[in-house]
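Following the same procedure, the fold was encoded as tokens, giving this record:
***
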Amino acid sequence: LPDVIGVMPNAHHKLQTTRSWDYLGLPSDTPNNLLDKSNMGDGVIIGVIDTGIWPESKVFSDEGLGPIPSHWKGACESGDQFNATTHCNKKIIGARWFIDGYLAEAGQSFNISEHKEHLSARDATGHGTHVCSIAAGSYASNISYKGLSNGTVRGGAPRARLAMYKVCWNIFAISACTSADIFKAFDEAIHDGVDVLSVSLRSPFPLLPEVDGHNPIAIGSFHAVAKGIIVVSAAGNDGPLAQKVINTAPWILTVAASTTDRGFPTPITLGNNKTVLGQSMFTGKESGFTGLLYPEDQGLGHPLTSAGVCENLALNRSLVAGKVVLCFTAIALIDRENISSAVKAAGGVGVIVAKFPIDHMDPCSNNFPCIEVDYEDGTEILRYILSTRSPIVKLNPAKTHVGKPYYGKVAYFSSRGPNSIAPAILKPDIAAPGSNIFAATSPLNPLAEHGFMMTSGTSFATPHVSGIVALLRALHPHWSPAAMKSALVTTAWNTDRHGLPVFAEGSPRKLANPFDFGGGIVNPNDAAHPGLVYDMNRADYINYLCAMGYTNSAISQLTENPTACPNKKPSLLDVNLPSITIPSLRNSTSLTRTVTNVGPVNSVYEVAIEPPFGTAVLVRPSVLVFNSSAKRISFEVTVLSTRQMNSEYYFGSLAWINGVLAVRSPICVRASA
């Protein structure tokens, strides 16, 4: 057919609140912040490619919204338990669903009842609803999760409109999303007129070239960005291992997950009157004192055996019934449901899990008490058990606490750089709250509480940035996707909101670096007025593809235009990103950047350098003078090795300062082997 550009093999892909907006400096009751200046994103359309949407949720109310934006060309499509007339409104203005790719791949029909799915845009799992709620949910007051996190739930851009493109299907409790359906969703979203695309999906690892047909997110987002649509996508949930970040194309805004300054302390009172603070989402009644048990191997009669490992619990009902069980695990991201089920099946009334501490909580079903402590506290509890014949414990319900000792960190699960396919392209770009995020979900989700739940993942960090981008789009409608990304990266926080250093969860915890969180934790208000931006357009992205060494024919197929790379291969180091990454420094390396003034016409900026260890960084010119005729200025950066370095990366920064603003770019340098 004449309108078919190319044919690619089909493949499967995977899916990737109340406090977070206040934490990011966007409370509803503060005038003159970005939320206020942008009229809460009114008129901006956020497209979401995901699992669907639950339209009855109160966060999708259109009360107070004006007419549907005039540039909208999309539609709502009816289907199983989804009526376009009644379920779409001035908030949900688009709803489409795509399953032909999955059906062609599976080679069979789709049994709705077997998979508890809907052949429509209705959400069966809650993932897409959660994403939409975070990005653009309307105000819903007096919401809590079993009494925790009580408050008003809303999205980042409460007056923005939503268009759902359902591509993921609940197949035996696993979301199946195929390349063909994702391609079609991008195609329709671009045609429909969305302004922002939020894509909390991932391609299989290892990373594939952006020109490869198995990479629909990279290809679809290229065409979206070429049309001025900013695409925000998840960095992945394979942390804390290095080089596992995904969605690494330079035209994508790739989001890592951070925590906030909220915790759920849960007092554990021992029979010796000592109290240990754990973390949980247990909200039941205080239990009163009951028996406390650490499992022993009955054959050896010694407590320090595998019998006390949480994943290997083989419990004797006669010993466990009516007691709380203590166990230890070496796994940071535990399967709470399996552990609690084993204890419950043996008649236990609660479980205390001693583990490496991370700020990632999930509830246990039926509000079963499953409380986490670190190894130090777990060992203290074990010492108490061993010190008495009849150990007892009292479990108290969790409380919501904001502030000390809880601070923002890069979440344990968040995928880290460096970029494994293009090491000179820094990924992730930015971090946003993605741990313990409270938002709407499908009431079919077994862990939902009145249609809301708390969950974690870079999938939910992504719509935080999508909502912020919608606010920026409303305030600066003519900014390019690259300009918006630059504004976010160069103004991001490198310290917590309380001024403390940002750590990255792992074993052990360490100070976060650009491979953990890109430019830093997103700072919406400062991003609205960045001063300078590192802008890029379609031609710049084609230069990137040439620098990657892709063939002219492959690039032409991606761009849908005949493309010939220059005879001299461009350098990846010269891609005009708001960051600098040199993966192989010998003696010296030079590169260029160009900044565009988006602040006052007459502005002067001076350079400020924090060189990575073992390097010197020279910038020419070191002063940038902008006026009505000089709106874009290029500069050269030379990085020199000043001493012997090992093969690890070292980090620094380059900032342009005008006395008010600091336009900061991270620098990452590794010496050549």
User: Anything to note?
Assistant: The first strand starts at residue 12 and ends at 15. The two ends are 51 Å apart (CA to CA).
